């Protein structure tokens, strides 16, 4: 009876997994850009490898449980005293070490990929977008185009996008699952996230890090379009939208939810992002090396900048 | 009236009022019950003032079970809220409070006292000691923990619950974004309970190092004692970080300091870093003793010695070191760059190696064994595959580039429940079932116990496997609602059903206790499982001095040697035994801490100052107090032993 329940349990797991994943592709496993593709590949690779481990452990477990059950043995059987064997234990350590070394290699390689300009778009000039969060909205500033939007993001497809993230308030996390993984937006520094969309399309984006009462609805829409369409949109905004004034921006920062809105000019002109010397223009690697030394300086800098 | 306004709940709802009434009525019923049965004196003499490690252990157990209920109710509320899109059962504020308290209660006030119960009850018995090294301090640990727990738990009816998540990241947790006193409760209640934990850590390390029975070298300790030793070493290194962190958080909130502010030189990331410098070792504090319990149980019911004793110990030592080297993996997405992430990604994956060694050793312990499927064994055998699943998803999360997609999603939630429930909760229930006869002199019903294990596992799989899938589909954690169009609803409904099934299994556990109290045989001797280590060598019920004669051991499984190889455990004759006196001071000091904490939460400064002076007075008093304990005479020992042996003989 026990075995039956066990198999019923296992069948159930696999049925749930296959049926439900079969319906439609899961967002994270349906990548639309090189960064998300790297991540989805890593995820699929590790799922396969890890399934192998789970199945191996399960198979050994079922085998020993069936073979060495008391009811399958003579009454006078006395299990032997076995201390352990260096060889067997070396193998038990060796196999995981090989797996971990392999995965470490994959992990490190992917780290440098997702922290660099998206593969295939190194030649394009990245579009810089400042994405800042406030309770519970996203503000997207396009400094080169001189426009700003709230709660929606238009980007050209086929071009690297460099997001500069920071927050007016709690730590938030900028996440467009189909384009790539998330990164934190914080109040006292700017983080950089590299993304790109391969083709035009519409995606969902959200804040993934809990930030208080309005967190659940802290989402935004992403539209990727051709470079020409993007240029047209920028032009149109310049013709139709209101300029973003300091008062208007203060009003936008008030806690609450807002729909979409569009402005000419960006808030960066009167409220610059909390950028310090480190991390803003250097590559991420330099940044991390410097971080420990720089953190004290940056505190002082932020001190000065606030007074 | 202004003074009392602050105690009102800022976001009241029907559920909160109903709980207030429920709690009030329960309290009245308890007080009336104790008065009616004239048990106040008994309660004071035998429990509140006790310094006996076994009784203190059982009090930890009661708190753990109570908190399991509270945390479980929180869990069911969350799962129900998310079972349907746009559900109106909880509004956002209430949902945020519920998941915050669920996390804090389950980790700090359920899992921690549960393992501390095992530390207290088992360590002295396993090493052949009469009590812990500092029995009075042990009582103080309990009462500090208890009062911290009490303070945290009154938050939702007095002043409002914390709502910034169990991680309480700044700046969300500062006064601007969390203006209610809820987060003050978080800072101060956990501080008081944490002091208790830190003190017991020191106590258990001393006990294990100094009070082992003759012949028990370090490498001859039972595996649970080893795991408890390492866990407590981690406690002593990790909890001071929490103490400092909470003190800094308290000062930011109450006194306007700038440790975690976003301007003025403060740094919000510092909170996240320090929190996880404590928080990650904390999960190993929970899981290592669980591993210890599984080792005891698997070896007992495979009827074999534990395979690879040395590598088991070595793997725990390695895990304890690595547990301090991985904290950054909780925020790979903070922007520290590819180099830092790569280092922490590798150290995190490396922890899988010693953990894998343990899994293999358990499998090899089963090999060539003679496996008996008792309830504790069933939990252990369900633990191995389910925990392996949780472990490998941990390796997946450790791949930092991919973690950008898992982070803050239900995938992560599924992962840590997948390690904590089969890892820690199953171990606690398995250990409870295993040691129940030692504590109470009768066994829990095996049939109901096995049903409970299977139902719990079915519920677990249904509740948490769907979360892996919705996580990969983009469901962020801590969202109180979602729209129909996201397509999360069906899997969340499955998760709710799973949670319901788990609730049934816990109800069955309670029923099993009731059933066994009424019907179970009391004629079970002192070794009902045919076990191997020293705790089973003494009588059931265990006399207050544990062992009439200090045992002498020669191997890791002293009792087994005595049973099978004719090793003589108890040599010599009875001698008078020195025991500590009971004391009410730990309880009184605990009570003063409670009032002090309450005054701090609500910034009632005169009261805070008075109670602070009270605390100091208690400490000074203790320093000058002369209490040399008492002796149990040889006659008394003979009488007790004869009675305990007599009971056994009659029953047989």
TrEMBL record, chain B:
Pfam families: COX1. Residues 38-554 form the Cytochrome oxidase subunit I profile domain. The keyword Oxidoreductase applies. It catalyses: 2 a quinol + O2 = 2 a quinone + 2 H2O. InterPro entries: Cyt_c_oxase-like_su1_dom (IPR023616), Cyt_c_oxase-like_su1_sf (IPR036927), Cyt_C_Oxase_1 (IPR000883), Cyt_c_Oxase_su1_BS (IPR023615), QoxB (IPR014233). Keywords: Cell membrane, Copper, Electron transport, Heme, Hydrogen ion transport, Ion transport, Iron, Membrane, Metal-binding, Oxidoreductase, Respiratory chain, Transmembrane, Transmembrane helix, Transport. Its cofactor is ferriheme a; Cu cation. It comes from the Bacteria. Belongs to the heme-copper respiratory oxidase family. Catalyzes quinol oxidation with the concomitant reduction of oxygen to water. This is Quinol oxidase subunit 1. It comes from Psychrobacillus lasiicapitis.
């Amino acid at each position: 009876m026990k075995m039956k329940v066990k198999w019923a349990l296992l069948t159930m797991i696999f049925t749930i997994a296959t049926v439900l994943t079969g319906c439609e592709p899961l967002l994270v496993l349906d990548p639309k850009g090189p960064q998300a593709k790297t991540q989805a590949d890593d995820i699929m690779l590790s799922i396969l490898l890890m399934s192998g481990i789970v199945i191996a452990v399960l198979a050994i477990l079922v085998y020993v449980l069936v073979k060495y059950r008391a009811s399958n043995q003579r009454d006078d059987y006395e299990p032997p005293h076995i201390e352990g064997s260096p060889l067997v234990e070396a193998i038990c350590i060796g196999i995981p070490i090989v797996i971990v070394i392999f995965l470490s290699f994959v992990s490190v390689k992917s780290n440098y990929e997702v922290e660099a300009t998206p593969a295939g778009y190194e030649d394009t000039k990245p579009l810089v977008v400042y994405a800042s969060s406030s309770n519970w909205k996203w503000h997207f500033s396009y400094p080169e185009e001189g426009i700003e939007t709230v709660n929606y993001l238009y980007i050209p497809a086929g071009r690297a996008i460099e997001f500069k993230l920071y927050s007016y308030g709690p730590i938030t996390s900028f996440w467009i699952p189909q384009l790539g993984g998330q990164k934190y937006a914080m109040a006292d520094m700017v983080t950089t996230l590299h993304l790109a969309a391969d083709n035009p399309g519409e995606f969902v984006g959200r804040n993934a890090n809990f930030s208080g009462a309005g967190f659940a609805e802290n989402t935004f829409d992403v539209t990727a379009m051709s470079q020409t369409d993007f240029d047209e949109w920028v032009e149109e905004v310049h013709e139709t939208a209101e300029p973003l004034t300091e008062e208007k921006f203060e009003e936008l920062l008030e806690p609450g939810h807002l729909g979409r809105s569009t402005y000419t000019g960006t808030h960066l002109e009167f409220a610059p992002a909390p950028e310090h010397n480190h991390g803003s223009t250097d590559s991420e690697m330099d940044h991390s090396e410097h971080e420990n030394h720089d953190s004290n300086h940056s505190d002082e800098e932020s001190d000065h900048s606030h007074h | 009236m202004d003074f009392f306004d602050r105690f009102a709940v800022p976001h009241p709802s029907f559920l909160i009022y109903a709980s207030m009434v429920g709690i009030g009525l329960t309290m009245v019923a308890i007080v009336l019950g104790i008065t009616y049965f004239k048990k106040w004196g008994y309660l004071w003499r035998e429990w509140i003032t006790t310094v006996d490690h076994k009784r203190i252990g059982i009090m930890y157990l009661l708190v753990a079970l109570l908190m399991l209920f509270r945390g479980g109710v929180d869990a069911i509320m969350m799962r129900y809220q998310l079972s349907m899109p746009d559900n109106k059962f909880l509004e956002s504020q209430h949902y945020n409070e519920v998941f915050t308290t669920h996390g804090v209660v389950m980790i700090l006030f359920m899992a921690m006292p549960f393992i501390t119960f095992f530390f207290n009850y088992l360590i002295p018995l396993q090493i052949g000691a009469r009590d812990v090294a500092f029995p009075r301090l042990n009582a103080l640990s309990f009462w500090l923990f208890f009062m911290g727990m009490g303070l945290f738990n009154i938050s939702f009816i007095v002043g409002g619950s914390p709502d910034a998540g169990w991680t309480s990241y700044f700046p969300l947790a500062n006064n601007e974004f969390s203006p209610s006193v809820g987060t003050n409760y978080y800072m101060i209640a956990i501080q008081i309970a944490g002091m208790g934990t830190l003190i017991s850590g020191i106590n258990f390390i001393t006990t294990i190092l100094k009070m082992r029975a003759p012949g028990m070298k370090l490498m001859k300790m039972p595996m649970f004692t080893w795991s408890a030793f390492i866990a407590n070493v981690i406690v002593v290194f990790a909890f001071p970080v929490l103490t400092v962190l909470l003190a800094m958080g308290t000062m930011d909130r109450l006194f306007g300091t700038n440790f975690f502010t976003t301007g003025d030189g403060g740094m919000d990331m510092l909170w996240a870093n320090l929190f996880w410098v404590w928080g990650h070792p904390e999960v190993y504090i929970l899981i290592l003793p669980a591993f210890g319990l599984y080792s005891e149980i698997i070896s007992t019911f495979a009827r074999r010695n534990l395979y690879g004793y040395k590598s088991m110990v070595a793997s725990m030592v390695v895990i304890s070191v690595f547990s301090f080297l991985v904290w950054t993996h909780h925020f790979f997405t903070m922007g520290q760059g590819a180099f830092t992430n790569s280092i922490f990604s590798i150290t995190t994956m490396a922890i899988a190696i010693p953990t894998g060694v343990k899994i293999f050793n358990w499998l090899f312990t089963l090999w060539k064994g003679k496996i008996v499927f008792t309830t504790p064994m069933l939990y252990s055998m369900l633990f191995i595959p389910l925990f392996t699943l949780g472990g490998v998803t941990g390796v997946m999360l450790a791949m930092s580039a991919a973690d950008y997609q898992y982070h803050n999603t239900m995938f992560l939630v599924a992962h840590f429940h997948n390690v904590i429930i089969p890892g820690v909760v199953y171990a606690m229930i398995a250990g409870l079932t295993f040691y129940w006869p030692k504590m109470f002199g009768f066994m829990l019903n095996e049939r109901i116990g096995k049903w409970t294990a299977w139902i719990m596992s079915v519920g677990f799989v249904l509740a948490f496997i769907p979360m892996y899938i919705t996580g990969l589909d983009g469901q962020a954690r801590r969202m109180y609602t979602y729209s129909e169009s996201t397509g999360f609803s069906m899997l969340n409904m499955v998760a709710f059903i799973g949670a319901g099934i788990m609730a049934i299994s816990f109800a069955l556990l309670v029923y099993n206790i009731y059933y066994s109290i009424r019907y179970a045989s009391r004629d079970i001797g002192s070794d009902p499982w045919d076990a191997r280590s020293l705790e089973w060598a003494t009588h059931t019920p265990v006399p207050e001095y544990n062992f009439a004669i200090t045992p002498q051991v020669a191997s890791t499984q002293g009792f087994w040697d005595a049973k099978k190889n004719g090793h003589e455990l108890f040599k010599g004759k009875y001698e008078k035994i020195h025991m500590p006196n009971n004391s009410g001071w730990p309880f009184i000091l605990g009570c003063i801490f409670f009032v002090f904490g309450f005054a701090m939460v609500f910034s009632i400064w005169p009261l805070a100052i008075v109670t602070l002076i009270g605390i100091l007075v208690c400490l000074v008093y203790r320093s000058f107090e002369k209490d040399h304990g008492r002796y149990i005479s040889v006659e008394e020992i003979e009488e007790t032993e004869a009675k305990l042996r007599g009971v056994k003989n009659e029953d047989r």
